[in-house]
Amino acid sequence: MMHVRFGVRIVALALVTLVGAGACAFDRGADGGGGGGAVPVGAAEQVTGASGTPGPDQRVRPTGPPSTPAAKPTRSTLKPTRPAAKPSSSAPAAGCPQGERQREVEAYLARLGGFGTISVDGRQSAADCAAIKKFQKRYDIRPAHGRAGPTTYDVAKRLATTDTSRCGAGAGTTFCIDLTRQTTWVMRNGEVLVKPTVTRTGMPGYRTPAGTFTINYRNIKEWSDPYEVWLPYWQHFTRGMGFHETTTYLHNKAIGSHGCVNLLHADAVRYWKLGKVGSRVVLIGRRPGT
After folding, report:
1. Model confidence over 3-20: pLDDT tens digits?
2. What is the percent of the chain where pLDDT is above 90?
3. Is 145 annotated as catalytic?
4. Catalytic: which of 96, 176, 236, 244?
5. Is 24 in the active site?
6. Active-site residue (options: 96, 167, 176, 260)
7. Which of 10, 39, 153, 229 is the most buried if burial means most Cβ atoms within 10 Å?
C-alpha cells in the first residue's frame, strides 16, 4: 500500500513540473499577441508591424531580417523650400557695398575713363564694383573693396577736375604739379604724356612753393639726413625739395611732406624713367591749409 501511494506522488510531481515549464513559454509569447499556439522563445522580440493587433505571421520566427521602421523626417526635410532668386544684371556683387558717394564716383570714373564699363545711376552693380575696385587699387586707396566712400570720391574728383592746360608746358618734358588739387602729371611738347595722378606736398609750416624749377640732382635711393629716412627715386629741384616715393600712406591728409612731392610707388618709378637732370618742373596753386 505504501508503494502505491509513493508512486502516485511521483506521477503528481511530474505533472506539476510539466505544467510549470509550459507556462513559462506561453508567458513570453503573450507580449507578442496573446492567444494562439505556443510561440518559440525569442519570437516576441522579432515580430513587426504598425498594427496593435498581431497577425498570424507574427507567431512564427520570420525567415528574413527584421524590417526597419520608416525613418523620421529630418529637420532639413521639414523646412520650406525657398524660391530661387531671379538673376539681375544690376544686383550688387557679393562683398561690394554701395557707398554714400555712389553716383558722384560713377560720374567721375566715367569722365576719367580706363576703369571699365560703369553706369551713372547711383546704384551699385557688379560692373560698377569692378571699376571702383580697379580705381582704388590704381591709386592705393585702402581698403580696395569697391565702396564709393569719401576718400574714393575725393581722389576721383581731384583727378577728374584737374586742368592739364594750366601747366603751360612747352617743348621737351615738363613735370606739372597742381598744389591746390594735390595732383601731378607729365607733359611733352605741349601734350599730356602721363595723365594726372595723386600726390601729397608740404604740410603746414613746410609749404611747397609754386614756381618753375629744374631737376638738378637725382639718386635712385637718397638718404635724408635731417629726417633719417630713405627717399626712393629721388629727383631734387629746389631747396632740398624733390620728387620721391612716399614713405607713409599718401591719402592721410593729416600729415604731409617737408616740402617734397610725394608719389605712389608706380608713379615714382615712371617719373624716374622719364626725368633727367635739366627736366623742367612747374608747380601751380597752393595746398589748402599751408
Report:
1. 444 444 443 433 333 333
2. 64
3. no
4. 244
5. no
6. 260
7. 39
